[in-house]
TrEMBL record:
<dbReference type="Pfam" id="PF01168">
    <property type="entry name" value="Ala_racemase_N"/>
</dbReference>
<keyword id="KW-0663">Pyridoxal phosphate</keyword>
<keyword id="KW-0413">Isomerase</keyword>
<feature type="binding site">
    <location>
        <position position="327"/>
    </location>
    <ligand>
        <name>substrate</name>
    </ligand>
</feature>
<protein>
    <recommendedName>
        <fullName>Alanine racemase</fullName>
        <ecNumber>5.1.1.1</ecNumber>
    </recommendedName>
</protein>
<dbReference type="InterPro" id="IPR011079">
    <property type="entry name" value="Ala_racemase_C"/>
</dbReference>
<dbReference type="InterPro" id="IPR029066">
    <property type="entry name" value="PLP-binding_barrel"/>
</dbReference>
<dbReference type="InterPro" id="IPR000821">
    <property type="entry name" value="Ala_racemase"/>
</dbReference>
<dbReference type="InterPro" id="IPR001608">
    <property type="entry name" value="Ala_racemase_N"/>
</dbReference>
<comment type="similarity">
    <text>Belongs to the alanine racemase family.</text>
</comment>
<feature type="modified residue" description="N6-(pyridoxal phosphate)lysine">
    <location>
        <position position="49"/>
    </location>
</feature>
<feature type="binding site">
    <location>
        <position position="146"/>
    </location>
    <ligand>
        <name>substrate</name>
    </ligand>
</feature>
<feature type="active site" description="Proton acceptor; specific for L-alanine">
    <location>
        <position position="268"/>
    </location>
</feature>
<dbReference type="Pfam" id="PF00842">
    <property type="entry name" value="Ala_racemase_C"/>
</dbReference>
<feature type="domain" description="Alanine racemase C-terminal">
    <location>
        <begin position="247"/>
        <end position="384"/>
    </location>
</feature>
<dbReference type="InterPro" id="IPR020622">
    <property type="entry name" value="Ala_racemase_pyridoxalP-BS"/>
</dbReference>
<dbReference type="GO" id="GO:0005829">
    <property type="term" value="C:cytosol"/>
</dbReference>
Length: 388
């Protein structure tokens, strides 16, 4: 027996966690509905790959299903198997397609492989000839040069009379590489190529737009849209204000507040020298928590090109990271925050409603997608189910 029985602990884990993550499922569902509105007559899927962009497949998948999503995209088959539990009658597409040996899993869990190459296409035709029909989708490359059946081959296959009549994809899709840059002429080029695909596969639903493609206008919507990042509150289009509600708030606790004198240095390498007497907050999150080392205030190469490092938010103030971000700890300069407004044990917001995800990402030289999917395992998570 110990005196520290779990039931007798006076604290909620969340209230004392070194690092914590609040995930607003109401905002998530609102964002998805907003994407569905913007998609006009097209149906709207939800992209939940990479553990729902790092925010939790179980909770996010369930919330999106309850909001009405019935088409989901995951990257790999195992994500589809997990999602099936929470989205019993949804159509779940697996974007990386299928490998020999996985076909049984697709049949057993009712997952739809998105066939991404002629090799996968022949394989799936052989599988369905042997085991009976099972839906598939075709990814056609219209200029990305990532996954996808080459355009000319896809057009030829559409007209191929030797194609078994029973072999009918349930969706043809392609992916824009510059959707986040509305002025890029690549978008129209890809659109025109995909219009040929949609015409060749007439009668089969077509899908081109991810979050940013939805915002390019109705021509890009076809029958099904595939928003991901916008649903999670991230910026879909560069350089315009983000209309989505923030979903994730990451916070870390101040373990220690220390006073340091002019001329002293801070953190590994001593790369930051204080130019005034300062108060420093030592905070319990670092690069192992996805708070990227490239957010360091100094001492990393990226500071030569992107002058300012990361900022946190506390008591109404933006406070800069000083020196290098370390594995488990980051140091913020809180000199400008009145002493009475900040104590050890308080939380600094790393990103969230007061510190936009994409601003933090830019300081790190990356994108919101990467920050979300790098969060790591140490955050205590709390999901909000109703507006508070
Ligand atoms: C990730 C992905 C999406 C979602 O993209 P967002 O930019 O997050 O909206 C859609 N389609 C494909 C093929 C993807 O890989």
């Amino acid at each position: 027996m110990t005196d520290f029985d779990d039931d007798t602990l006076p604290f909620d884990e969340f209230d004392i966690a070194p690092a914590r993550l609040t995930i607003d499922l109401v905002a998530l569902a609102d964002n998805w509905r907003e994407m569905a509105d913007l998609s006009g007559n097209a149906s709207t899927a939800a992209v939940v790959k990479a553990d729902a962009y790092g925010l939790g497949l179980e909770d996010c998948g369930t919330a999106l299903y309850e909001a009405g999503a019935r088409d989901f995209f995951v990257a790999v088959v195992q994500e589809g198997v997990t999602l099936r539990t929470y989205a019993p009658d949804a159509r779940i597409y697996v974007l990386s397609g299928v490998w020999p040996g996985q076909e049984g899993t697709f049949y057993e869990h009712g997952l739809v492989p998105v066939l991404v190459s002629e090799e996968q296409l022949s394989f799936w035709m052989a599988v369905t000839a042997e085991h009976g029909d099972h839906p598939c989708a075709l990814h056609i490359d219209t200029g990305f040069n990532r996954l996808g059946i080459p355009l000319e081959d896809a057009l030829a296959f559409a007209d191929d009379v030797s194609r078994p009549a029973s072999f009918s994809p349930v969706l043809v899709l392609s992916h824009l590489h510059s959707g986040d840059t509305p002025s890029s002429s690549f978008n129209r080029q890809q659109l025109e190529s995909f219009q040929k695909v949609a015409a060749a596969y007439e009668g089969i639903p077509a899908s081109l737009a991810a979050s940013s493609g939805i915002m390019l206008g109705s021509e890009y919507h076809f029958d099904l849209t595939r928003p991901g990042i916008a649903v999670y509150g991230g910026e879909a289009v560069g350089g315009v204000s983000n209309p989505m509600r923030p979903v994730a708030k990451a916070e870390a606790r101040i373990i220690q507040i220390r006073s340091a004198k002019t001329g002293e240095t801070v953190s590994y390498g001593g790369t930051h020298r204080l130019t005034r007497d300062s108060r420093l907050a030592i905070v319990a999150a670092g690069y192992a928590d996805g708070y990227k080392r490239s957010l360091s205030g100094s001492g990393v190469p990226i500071r030569d090109s992107i002058h300012e490092g990361g900022f946190g938010f506390i008591a109404g103030h933006r406070v800069p990271v000083v020196g290098r971000v370390t594995m488990d700890l980051t140091i913020f300069d809180i000199t400008d925050v009145p002493e009475r407004d900040v104590r050890t044990g308080d939380y600094i917001e790393l990103f969230g409603p007061n510190m936009p995800l994409d601003d933090v990402a830019r300081a790190a030289g990356t994108i919101g997608y990467e920050l979300l999917t790098s969060l790591g395992l140490r955050y205590e998570r709390r999901y909000l189910y109703a507006d508070e």
